[in-house]
Amino acid sequence: MSATTRLTTAQALVRWMLAQRSELLDGTEVPLFAGVFGIFGHGNVLGLGTALHDARHRLPTWRGQTEQGMALAAVAYARATDRRQVMAATSSVGPGALNMVTAAGVAHANRLPVLLLPGDTFTGRAPDPVLQQVEHYGDPTISVNDAFRPVSRYFDRITRPEQLLATLPQVARVLTDPADAGPVTVALPQDVQAEAFDFPTAMFETRVHRVPRARPDLADLAAAAEVVRRAERPLLVLGGGVRYSGAGAQAVAFAERHDVPVVETVAGRTLVPHDHPLYGGALGIVGSASANALAAEADVVVAVGTRLQDFTTSSWTGFADGARLVTVNAARFDAVKHNAPSVVGDARETLPELSTALGDWSTGPSWAGRAASEKQRWDAHVDDLRAGGHTPDGTLTYAQVTGIVNDASTPDDYVVTASGGMPGELHGGWRTGEVKHGAGPTSGATMDLEYGFSCMGYEVVAPWGAAMARQQTHPEGLVTSIFGDGSYLMLNSEIYSAAFAGHPYVAVVCDNGGFAVIHRLQTNQGAEGFNNLLSDARGPGADGSVRVDFAAHAASLGAHVEDVRGSTDVEELRAAYLRAREAARATRRPAVVACTVHESAWTEAGAWWETGVPESLSGRASYDEGKHRQVRWL
Q: Does residue 123 lie within any of the structural domains?
């Protein structure tokens, strides 16, 4: 008879988590589950909370201030480890659970693994309706946790302890599979959490999860090679899948062997050194004019590890008329988009095999040299923006803020942003230095640009999760996040969590007077400014009499603060940022730099983005022209 161990459902779940291991890119074994973010309530404090307390020395639990914030930090942790490690987040039933749904959406859109463990209502139903329960008149089996279904890669509600035996292998599969990676939600009714069962001891044996590296189908590979071989102006596009595969070195080698210009998506950013002669820049709406110019002329686009979202394709107007698309992707769902000749396989294994299939084929020096010449023009433009003098009152620009952080960063540092205008500044204007491909436990990528879900507030809490991860893999480095005042006001409470827990990073808060990037979208299409800037929002505070003191607020949350708001001196900001870096390291707390930037001094790539424009607005003509160019890809 097989050996068994009597445990509660919660204890069995935690013990299983402790048994799961993961292999980093350099072969190092680490825990698959690095820890748990938790806010306890009546739906999880006694069942799962007791089990986590018993395991606290092996599976650390970190206290959050908001359920959304801590779950977003868990998502950022996964990105910072190239999806090799996972954080869990647990909440009570009701509002605590629903607060994590947004984080699930971020993880789902970005293909990032996170384990969400919301408490749930009683399966026995004796005390129904319980506190925080939302009753459904026609279906008593539904709870608020069903809201996780559309934003989860895998969802289950455990109504019997023994269901863990079938569910947990599927949980591990989704969290570690390159094709399926994403959020897993396991809803835990509070009575079932505490229910005991005799679990097979074998369930808790150590299991090492290695990333499966699927090889491509030979016929698909040959077909893709035939398309590429006929190209005169090919372009290699690197997405997040290249990063998570650890295939940056293989991608650069492919480009070098065949003289193919290479560009990056937001998820694939910082895989190629900026000064590489074949690097054409960042692709897309918030990218660079250099990469977009190459895309507009390429006759074959080899898209590797990208889901080809609209900010990459410029709403499918960025590629030349008649261009052929070839995709390489671990997920068949993404590979087959737009009827492209597709190769389903791991990027690290597939790129060398595609290169071998191409043999000694390469482009001519004229096309290969276009990457350097286009990038040189773009660099001159960014240099001009960083030099300043582009605002009527001398106010600092976003490009200057980005340049200061860029100049101070090392190959071990890590930069974060998400929503608003800063993605355009980092994606389009950041210059990647040395890339440590294969020299450590991670891919060498040094940026987390969350522009899959573009979640305001992510960039405020993501540095907490990223700092936790990077302390383990890059202890000499430092995380910096750059964001606007709108994001700060949405989700700032986890600054206190990071200060309390002792996780240092630098946050640069750019006060631009409201939701400035949406104000730009609004007014650039001919609409009047309305409800985006503080100055055009309803209320007596629009006159400037009611404003947040970001420096004082951040200090009250436990952060070291450098306040240079109102300064137009770029060197003063530079000095403040350098002091903040040193303070974060010395105090082991977040350091916040508060500065003022001009609301409309953006770095523009000149690409088109489809947004619904009414016929009454002046931007309608540009909209119609873009729709005309887009139709060939539909």
A: yes
Does residue 370 sit in the same domain as residue 393? no
- The tokens of 470 are what? 């990077």
Structure tokens at 338: 């737009």
626 within some domain: no
Q: Which of 155, 181, 209 is the last residue of a domain?
A: 209
What's residue 1's pLDDT? 66
Query: Of 571, 387, 423, 584, which is closest to residue 503 (Cα–Cα)?
Result: 584
Q: State how far the Cα of 535 lies from the Cα of 532, in Å rounded to an integer.
A: 8
**Could you tell me which residues are beta bridge partners of residue 5?**
199
Q: How far apart are CA 368 and CA 307, in angstroms?
A: 25
353 residue type, one letter: E
Report the distance separating Cα 490 and Cα 469, nearest Å.
Answer: 24
Please state whether the peptide bond connecting residue 129 to the residue before it is cis, i.e. omega within 30 degrees of 0: yes
State the Cα–Cα distance between residues 293 and 94, nearest whole angstrom.
Answer: 50
Is residue 361 located within the same domain as residue 392? no
- What percentage of the chain exceeds 70 in pLDDT? 99
Q: Is residue 604 part of a domain?
A: no
Helices (H), 42-92: 47-54, 67-80
CA atoms within 13 A on the CB side of 219: 0
Cα separation of the two ends of the chain: 60
Q: pLDDT tens digit string along 504-550?
A: 999 999 999 999 999 999 999 999 999 999 999 999 999 999 999 99
The C-alpha angle 96, 420, 82, rounded to 5 degrees, equals 65
Q: Which domain range does residue 485 map to?
A: 388-596
**How many whole angstroms separate alpha carbon 167 and alpha carbon 158?**
9
CATH classification of the domain holding 478? 3.40.50.970
* Number of compact structural domains in the chain: 3
pLDDT at residue 232 above 80?
yes
Nearest Cα neighbor of 40 from 54, 50, 31, 28 is 50
Q: Against a cut of 0.85, is the pTM above it?
A: yes
Do 154 and 131 reside in the same domain of the chain? yes
> Does the pLDDT of residue 631 top 80, yes or no?
no
Angle of helix 570-587 relative to helix 398-408, nearest 10 degrees, comes to: 50
User: What token pair was written down for 493?
Assistant: 């409470």
